[in-house]
Write a structure and sequence with these properties.
The longest helix is centred in the middle third of the chain and has 17 residues. With 233 residues, the chain is α+β, with helices and mostly antiparallel strands. Helices cover 30% and strands 24% of the residues.
């Protein structure tokens, strides 16, 4: 299917279930399958025999565990694709300043609003509104606090946070009549939800430690479902 994050999330959850140390770990995110593809009515048809999956986590040991689990089996089936793990590469953390430009490798969901009100979770919020950035700030600070990697004093210094969408991109998409925001399915604590996800280039103004956190763990809500993965542009 065109959107296959839920298939990848189920696969990764099945690998996590093999080790009690990682069963409930959620400080990670991942991309969609990357490769040359054609968009058909039924979904994607990949035209290349090599695909790439990008995985990132705050705990490097978790990545090592997943890589080992993936390579323990010769082939995996995902949808109608048969995958054989061949190679793994480690990508270093890039230099991230107080203003960093990003691309979305997977849809960005600004909040957990869908858990209280599904209609609110599906609602379109213009990313140029302060509300969009405010939701992401709240989501990010809560996540950083729950990670227990930062002290209260650290969190108090991360007050600068502003997401600025690429205005030219939004105007171009509008002229072409295309969409950059859609509803996507996610699973959370055994329940199914629909959330509004956004795919767009933007600049994030934030503390370098916040930049490193969202680059590594993902930005926004439901990152363990393969949402909010970023790459520098």
């Amino acid at each position: 299917p065109y959107y296959h994050q839920h298939l990848l999330a189920n696969w990764i959850n099945s690998l996590k279930s093999k080790d009690t140390q990682w069963q409930h770990y959620d400080q990670y995110t991942f991309s969609s399958l990357r490769g040359q593809a054609s968009s058909l009515k039924a979904g994607l048809r990949y035209r290349h025999d090599q695909l790439r999956l990008v995985l990132s986590a705050l705990n490097e040991a978790f990545v090592d565990f997943l890589v080992q689990a993936i390579f323990e089996q010769e082939t995996w089936e995902l949808g109608m694709i048969h995958l054989a793990p061949v190679q793994v590469d480690k990508q270093p953390l890039p230099e991230l300043g107080t203003a960093t430009s990003y691309l979305c490798l997977s849809p960005l969901v600004p909040s957990f609003a869908a858990l209280q009100d599904e209609e609110a979770g599906r609602q379109f919020i213009n990313p140029q509104r302060d509300l969009f950035s405010d939701w992401l700030y709240e989501c990010t600070m809560n996540s950083m606090e729950q990670s227990e990697l930062y002290t209260a004093a650290d969190i108090s210094t991360f007050f600068k946070f502003q997401l600025v969408p690429d205005h030219d991109y939004l105007q171009k998409i509008k002229r072409q009549g295309k969409l950059f925001a859609r509803n996507y399915p996610v699973a959370y604590q055994g329940k199914q939800y629909e959330v509004r996800g956004y795919v767009l280039p933007f600049t994030l103004h934030a503390h370098p430690q916040v930049q490193a956190y969202v680059y590594t763990r993902g930005l926004g809500a439901f990152t363990q479902q393969g949402l909010g993965m970023l790459d520098v542009s």
